[in-house]
Please model this.
Amino acid sequence: MRLGRITIGLAAALALTACSVEAPSGSDDASGLVQVENADWARDAVIYQLNTRHFTSEGTFAAAQEQLPRLAEMGVDIVWLMPIHPIGEEKRKGGMGSPYSVLDYRAVNPDLGTEEEFRAFVDIAHEQGLKVILDWVANHSAWDNALVAERPEWYTKTPEGEMMPPAGTDWSDVVDFDFSNPEMREYMTESLVYWVREFDIDGYRADVAGYVPLDFWNDARAELDAVKPVFMLAEWDERDMHYEAFDATYAWSWKEVMQDIAKGEADASAMRGYFTGQQLTWPHEGMRMMYTDNHDQNSWDGVASEIYGPAYETAIALSFTAHGIPLIYNGQEADLDRQLAFFEKDEIEWKTGQYEDLFRRLIALKTQESALWNGRWGAPMIDVRTNADENVFAFVRGEGADRMFAVFNLSPGAQQVTFDLARHHGTFTDAMTGEERAFNADAALALEPWGYRIFTAN
Model:
């Protein structure tokens, strides 16, 4: 999405209508909901969202390619490129238009470079140990996409017979596809396969995935995996997406809870409730993408450090240590401190940010500690109750020497924390300071406002 958020309530309602297949058996609980075979390289993966237009002064693949070694050294695993296709001119918004207004699904936007330069970008990424996924816009095309004239029956019509943007949106620069047309589905699937087969990309982030019938994604995933193992991320918050199609889905609900806590409109109980719901009703194998910033939030909601305020670092740390797959946004490690223009060229100001070292440490921790791995590979979160549960969220992941123990003060007040039960007992090392710390029945922990501690078992 790019012209404003879909609310969680609307997303849930649309998910019920967009999925044209029946829910798989066992969907009253979280069992039997995953048949996707995740690629092994996704087990501890961290995603980096890259907007080629904004990423360098040149705004090209060739220029962005120069920063791939830095991303690899930082510990990033998957580079998600925002749409790379030519952009429509008819009804264009702004001077450069939205990259989600696709003019040609099998071409490269000349503003970003040539096909050869894109191929080189992918090859260099692979040499650096990085995977590359493309942002894919299956739901709609530009109005001047050749398909509009050549295949008008592939598009949704109003009751008056006119082509239209996706229903219920203000996306006036794009026209909605009709997924009841089998030829259109075949074209879209073949286009997805094209980039994997011809350019060796490693998967896709599916824009507004729930606006497209789930059986399309299920079929497309099978076609893609027949070429090579891929990684699929759905911009949607629906658990059945994980059954056959997607490795990961957006954890919109987590983001909403965390922002409510940062604004003082919820407390740690809401975060505990979120993860309890995840554990009881979502498949453990399904990766939920946790983020504190992305292009939609930055463009339309505001600057992440201002949205979260003093809770920002805490939110970042929780997104890496809780059960989920974390995202770093385009320049976030350089303390991105302004909203980037969405329809224009707007270069990131690169500098050594105060959060860059935090991201490096958290990525290294996630890589080293198997309890923190993604989806099926990671350990469940076990609640550790405290004397301050309204303000403090504590949990362990893993067992014995593989345990991780984390304590988050999700409040603006200092906390002196004591703990119940023995789930966290043992000797640990503070992952951020290297200090050794023993926890027993009498142990207490002092936390500053919005403070957190992450411990790994010795």
Remarks:
- The mean pLDDT is 93.
- The first strand starts at residue 47 and ends at 50.
- DSSP finds 14 helices and 18 strands in the chain.
